[in-house]
Structure prediction request, 451 residues.
Amino acid sequence: MLKGFLKRFSEERPVTHKKIKPTIIPRSEHSISRNDISRNALKVLYRLDGAGFGAYLVGGCVRDLLFGRRPKDYDIATNALPEEVRKLFKNSRLIGKRFRLAHIVFGKEIIEVATFRTHHESASEAHGKSSHQGMIMRDNVYGDIEDDVWRRDFTINALYYNIADFSVVDYTGGMADIKSKTLRMIGNPEQRFHEDPVRLLRAARFVGKLQIQISPETEQSLMQMSHLLQHVSHARLFQETLKLFQEGALLATFKLLEKYNFLSALFPQTVDCLTQPEARKLLEEALSATDQRILDGKSVSPAFLLAALLWFPILKQTQRFQAENLPPYVALERALQHVIKLQTQQLAIPRIMTTTIRELCVLQYHFNHCYGSKPYRILEHPRFRAAYDLLVLRSIAGEPVSELAKWWTDFQEADHVQREKLLKTTAPARPKKRSRPRRFIKKRNPATPTA
Ligand code: ATP
Ligand code: MG
Prediction:
């Protein structure tokens, strides 16, 4: 037992390399009220505290509470080891290879409890590892609060709300940065972005979401770092992109991604199309509509946003294939294959989402078929609503589909009698039937599949 104890304190809790006195901000001098904290998070904090462990809210939840926003989730930091947390909570499970964490499950809400970790520089070789590019590969060495604070990314993300006395513990000047609305990297920004380039995307996300400024040193190094994103795994890039999609300030964030040249690491084919005013307009409309949905408390479909981001690359590629004399539908299918393949080389988009992207784009083609029983079948399609929204966006963006979009608006709102009338009277012209079998056709007119 003594051996185990010594091991724990010699290897897993290495001596901290920084001894800086924190500023303790008492309850009377900050705005975090327990009324605004999730009851489940409070339960976890109190039980850890009651068992004699340190228990702190940390990260995004403290930051958001201080900005007067409702946190989207709660992270707790403690000196209890994961196994000790596991023992305290029946409703917990240990997760993670890269970081070992406890998840305490309360129905839909999950409270994440992490043992204080140390920065890799002070960690023993066995636990903390960096790649030759200076990226942190593994970071699972336990420490105390003084160690834990320095491995965090931005000062506003490194404030600890102490349940023992309701104070906020501030080692890095995060409270001043909250007050001046500044995003500032802890430590040397260049080195910290090298350690984990995902921090670049996180910076854009926080600045966009919180409408804050970036400190000059952090911004200066961020401007020159977009190339680092190529070293991030496609799976992690995709996870970060999903987070960007869910913040509710997507349009502002998108502009930052473009400004700092991060967009080309995520959506290079989209960037190539953005010189086209219609492509830019479609995206801006899609992003601001999404922001509005989030404001209204509605759900957001990442596959829809991906389809909006990829629509113009797909359209461009379809036109290229048509110019090579492929029939419109075949050209569209091949373009989808081509564009999605290139895109998934950047982001690990799961197959379930690429299938939805395909369906939304193929429906754009089928929307042209406003005759017979087809429109009824299209209406029944599970992706009809999202595909129709994309059609409307395309029309707003200036593609020549406004008549078609209007027809589909009328058709879906009409009763059966009106629908039959619409089919007979106002349907856009039915495409002509082939007069000869396809094998005899040598040259065909390259028209877009959707116009
Ligand atoms: P939100 O949950 O609103 O997206 P967050 O800041 O809480 O934002 P999380 O991913 O939940 O983000 O991380 C929790 C905390 O962990 C962060 O506030 C930060 O202190 C730390 N952290 C997360 N990712 C990193 C990283 N890549 N580098 C350094 N610290 C990080
Ligand atoms: Mg969080």
The first strand starts at residue 23 and ends at 25.
